[in-house]
């Protein structure tokens, strides 16, 4: 089973650790596109944000910030990206933060669940394509809808390369796709895999009415992943996954199979 997670916009920047080594990352089939995206981002962001510097430098900072959708109060993220080759790295499951990762709480998983996380989880990344929880990466800021000078759409780059890595990661097992819409655009499952693809939607139900709420969605997905890792079950079909989640106490409604996979709706009334 391969569980695809979205990244977090916020990241915890490591203070200590060796610099990034692309050759050490999982999914080596992605080394070339990783290098392409990193080099384009570093080239864009290798400017000093010191306000006392000449106007030309400040214009370059403004250009980088606008390109990346970085606000005036976050200009230090431009500098962070510019140091990607030399910044300290740490485990991906310590770098990614936010609601989903708080709910998953990787550090407090049991020993057996941590072993499963190492082989069953992969985070979709605009910078690295896919990373395992134990892969050592630096903090960065690059949205999935970014366009980089000289490279173009980040999503388009990953659409060309990500399929091979995902196929290798899922093997003959089930793909549980928990990516957000933005990162789902990096790769769409072909119809040949449809019977082994399960997507999960979280619906918040209040007074009989259901809606998607971002906070509930992220937190619930984190708790679902935690439950799956702790349980250790390895369902092979979307239907078996629905059965397992039901056994674990979740309210699940199984959709009809489609050419892209089968959607599971998880219904929650509180977070």
TrEMBL record:
GO cellular component: cytosol
Signal peptide: none
Alphabetical GO biological process terms: response to hydroperoxide
Chain segments annotated as transmembrane: none
Domain of life: Bacteria
Classification via Pfam families: H2O2_YaaD
Residue ranges of coiled coil: none
UniProt protein name: Peroxide stress protein YaaA
């Amino acid at each position: 089973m391969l569980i695809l997670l979205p990244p977090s916009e916020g990241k915890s920047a490591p203070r200590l650790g060796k610099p990034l080594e692309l050759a050490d990352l999982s999914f080596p089939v992605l080394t070339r596109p990783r290098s392409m995206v990193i080099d384009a981002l570093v080239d864009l962001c290798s400017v000093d944000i010191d306000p006392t510097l000449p106007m030309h430098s400040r214009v370059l900072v403004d250009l980088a910030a606008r390109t990346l959708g970085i606000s005036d109060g976050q200009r230090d993220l431009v500098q962070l990206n510019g140091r990607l080759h030399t910044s300290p790295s740490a485990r991906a499951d310590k770098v990614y933060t936010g609601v989903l990762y708080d709910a998953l709480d990787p550090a407090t998983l049991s020993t057996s669940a941590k072993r499963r996380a190492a082989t069953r989880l992969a985070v979709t990344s605009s910078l690295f394509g896919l990373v395992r929880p134990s892969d050592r990466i630096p903090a960065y800021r690059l949205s999935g809808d970014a366009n980089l000078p000289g490279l173009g759409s980040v999503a388009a780059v990953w659409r060309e390369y990500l399929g091979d890595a995902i196929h290798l990661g899922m093997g003959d097992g089930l793909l549980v796709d928990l990516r957000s819409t933005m990162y789902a655009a990096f790769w769409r499952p072909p119809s040949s895999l449809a019977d082994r693809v399960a997507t999960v939607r979280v619906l918040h139900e209040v007074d009989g009415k259901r809606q998607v709420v971002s906070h509930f969605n992220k937190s619930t997905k984190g708790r679902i992943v935690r439950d799956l890792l702790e349980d250790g079950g390895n369902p092979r079909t979307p239907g078996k996954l629905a059965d397992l989640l039901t056994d674990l106490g979740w309210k699940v409604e199984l959709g009809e199979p489609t050419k892209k996979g089968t959607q599971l709706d998880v219904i929650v009334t509180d977070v």
